[in-house]
């Protein structure tokens, strides 16, 4: 599984988001649609920097990818950033050793797994907020579950995941990943 699959999900959701809905709320209470797209684009840049072993001071109030662009240009800017991020993580060496997430050192494989999950989860958030359908292949769902499971409790404790949502025994890996991250898979 490579990161490009979840980046593709994110870009499809971003391309499908009508700028007329950029002020709408999302399942992430702290983000409007526009703020979520900006967060996703910024995450893509962070992930690219991590893969390339670029350590940067990160200002969460800045918009390193979308700042200064007209909203009509956001989708293409995100697609371009996603391509750069996917290319950086396509190198097997990107997954080895240690890297930094902004200025925080950690194993590169952990960063890769976290960000792989992050892009898919936020693609779902954006799809739900903008009335889109998000089709997730079983292998992608499994990779996202693998990324969410080890950090789910830490995410709940840190406030970046909500309480786990119960799902039935027949739930897919994707549905289980959504539920573990505090998202209700039945929400549309």
Automatic annotation (TrEMBL):
Coiled-coil stretches: none
InterPro entries named in the record: CHP03086 (IPR017520), DinB/YfiT-like (IPR034660), Maleyloyr_isom (IPR017517), MDMPI_metal-binding (IPR024344)
GO molecular function: metal ion binding
Domain Mycothiol-dependent maleylpyruvate isomerase metal-binding: 12-127
Source organism, top-level taxon: Bacteria
Sequence segments annotated as region (Disordered): 159-188
Gene3D superfamilies, per database record: dinb family like domain (1.20.120.450)
Name of this chain's protein: TIGR03086 family protein
Annotated source species: Pseudonocardia hydrocarbonoxydans
């Amino acid at each position: 599984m490579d990161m490009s699959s979840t980046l593709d999900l994110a870009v499809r959701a971003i391309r499908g988001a009508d700028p007329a809905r950029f002020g709408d709320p999302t399942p992430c209470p702290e983000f409007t649609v526009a703020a979520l797209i900006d967060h996703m684009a910024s995450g893509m840049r962070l992930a690219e920097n991590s893969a390339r072993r670029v350590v940067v001071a990160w200002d969460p109030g800045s918009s390193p990818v979308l700042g200064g662009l007209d909203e009509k240009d956001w989708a293409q800017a995100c697609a371009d950033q996603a391509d750069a991020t996917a290319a950086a993580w396509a190198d097997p060496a990107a997954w080895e050793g240690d890297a930094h997430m902004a200025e925080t050192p950690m194993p590169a494989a952990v960063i890769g797994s976290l960000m792989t999950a992050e892009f898919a989860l936020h693609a779902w958030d954006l799809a739900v907020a903008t009335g889109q359908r998000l089709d997730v292949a079983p292998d992608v769902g499994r990779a996202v579950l693998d990324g969410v499971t080890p950090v789910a409790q830490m995410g709940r404790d840190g406030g970046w995941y909500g309480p786990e949502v119960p799902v039935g025994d027949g739930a897919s890996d994707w549905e289980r990943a959504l539920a573990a991250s505090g998202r209700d898979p039945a929400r549309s």
